[in-house]
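Why this split exists: single-chain examples teach little about how molecules sit against one another. For that reason, every record in the complexes split bundles all components of an assembly together and asks for one structure covering all of them. Below is a record exactly as it appears in the raw files.
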Amino acid sequence: MKQEWKLFRKNGALFTLSLPGILYLFVIAYLPMAGIIVAFKDYRYDLGIFGSRWIGFKNFEFLFVSESAFVITRNTVLYNLGYMLIGTAASLAVALLLNEIAGRLSRFYQTVMFLPHFLSWVVVGYIAYAFLDAQSGFANQALQALGLPPVDWYFDSRYWPYILNPVHLWKSIGFSALVYYAGILGIDPDYYEAARIDGANRLQMALRITLPMLLPLVSILLIVSTGHMFRGDFGLHYFIPNNSGLLYGATDVIDTYVYRALRVIGDFGMSSAVGLYQSIVGLGLVLAANYTVRKLNPDNSLW
Amino acid sequence: MAHNSVRNSILDSVRIPTHNPVRNRTSHRAANIVIHLFFLLLTLFIVLPMLLIAAVSLTEEKLLARNGYRFWPESFSLDAYRYIFEAPAIVLRAYGVTTGVTIAGTLLGLLFISTIGYAISRRDYRYSRITTFYVFFTMLFSGGLVPFYILMTQYLHVQDTLLALILPGLLSPFYVMIMKGFLDKIPPEMAESAKIDGAGEWTIYSRIILPLSAPALATIGLFVSFILERLVQRAAVHRQRQADSAATAAGPNSQHDRLPGPEPAIRRSAGHRRSAIPFAIDTHGDGHRRHGADHVHLPSVPTVLRQGIDGRSHQRLRGFAQAGQIPSPDRTLNII
C-alpha cells in the first residue's frame, strides 16, 4: 500500500495533467452510465432517479411489444448498412481518383465536395424540400416538363430509401473521401517508385499498392461504424422526411422514434431502455467485428 | 505558378522512362480526361442542390408561389435578405453566440484532449494503460441520451445556458486517440532530458509538448470546430512558412534560404521528402505527393495518425536530446 502510494506520488504530476480529462469523462460519460437504471424504473421527475419505483423489464416490453419495434430496428440497420457500404465504396473510389490527378483542380474538387459537410441537417432538409415539395418542388416540375405525372414525395414512402441514401452520400462523401485521400498521401512514395521501375501502370498501382495499403484504415473505420449500426442518424431521418407521419414505415429509425416517444408521451423509462438496448447491441457488434477482423488479419483490427 | 513549372520540369527530367513512353502518354491523357469528367459530374451533384436553394432565396415571393422553385428565377429580389437584416441584432447575436461557443469550446476541448492525450502517450506513466481504457471505453458504451439529459437538467442544471452547448462535445475519445497517436512519435528522450534539466511535467507539457503538437492540435481543433477553420488554417500556413525557413536553415543546403517561400522542388532536391510537420495547409494549390512534399490540403486524421512527426524532424529532435540540449521554447516554436 505504501509502495503504491509512493508510485502514485511519482506519477502524480502526469496524473494531475490528465485529471481535467478524467473528471470531464467521469461526469459526462460515466455518470450517465449509472443513469442506465432509469431503464428499469418508472421514472418520475419529482422522485428523481433514485427515488423512482423499480419496475424491472416493463420499459423494454413496451418497446418490443409495440408494432414499431421491428420496423424501426429494420430501418435503422438497413439504412446504416446502406450508408456504410455505399459511402465507403464511393469515397474510396473518389479518393483513388483524386490521387490520380494533380494541381489546382484537385484542390477545387476537394473543396466543393467538402462544402455540404458544413451544412446542418436542417438546411439540408430545406434543400430537399425545394426539390421534393409537391407543388413548387423542382423534382415535380422536372417530371411535368417530361410529361410524367407528379409524385407526392412526402406522402409516398416507396421512394424514400432512394432519397435518403443519396442525400447521406451527398453530405458525407467529401469528408470521408478526404480521410481516405489523406491516408493515401501517407503511403510511402518508394512503393510507387519501385512499381514504376517495374513498369506498373496507374491502374495496377492503384489496385495493388494504394488499395491494400488503405485496407487497415478502411477496416478500422468500418469496425467503428458497426458500433453505430443501431444508432440512427437523427438529423437525417428527422429533417429530410420533414417528420411526415406517412413516411414512418420507410424512414423512421430508433432515434427518431425515441425522440417522438420522449416528446409526445414524455416516457423517460422507455426512452432510456431503448438507449441501453442500442448501447449494448453496439458494444456487442464492435467486439464481434473486431474479433472477426483480428482473426482474419491482426494488423487491421482496432485493438 | 512559377514554382509549379520549375518543379514539374525537374520531376520530368528525373522520371524513369517506361517501356513505351508515346503510347503511355496518350492513354495517360485519355484516362485523365475521363477522371476529370467524373469529377465534373460529381461537382455538379454536390453544387446543384446548393445553387437551387441560393436561387430560391433570391426569387421574389410571388414568383415562388406561381412558378415554384427554379434554378433561374424570372426576376431577382433581395427581399428575403432585407427581411433578415432589418433586425440585424438577432442575426448578429446569433453569430456572436456561435462564435463565442465555438472558440471557448474548442480551446477548452483542446486543453482536455492534449493533457490527457499526453499523459497516456508517455510510456513511463504508470497509469497509461488504465487511463487509455478509461477513455476508450466511453467510445464503445454510453448511458444513452436520456440519462445524459437527466444529468444535464436535474443535476448540473445547465439547461438554457450556453454551457449546455459547450459541455457535451468537449472531449471525444476519438480525438484523444488521434492526439496519442501523434504524441507517440515524439521521442521520449525529449521529456527525459528536460527532466534531467529540472523541468517539471507541467513545464514539459506546456513548453515542449504543446508547441510540438501544434499540427495535431490544429487538426483536432478543426474537427472540434469548423467555424474556426479559416483562422486555424491561416495559423497553420503561417507556421508552415516558419517551419520551412527553420527546416531549410537547419538542413544541409542552407543556401536555399534566399529563395522565397516554401519550395517543394528545391526541398526535394535537397533530399527533403517530407515537410517539417506532418501536415500543412497546401500553399501551392498542389498537394500531390509525387510532385512535391507531403502537403495535405486539409489536416486529416490518418496523416497525423500515421506520420506523427516525420523521420527527419524526429532525427533533429533526437539530435537535440542526445546533445543534452533542450531547445528553448523560442527555438521549438520556430521549428514548428
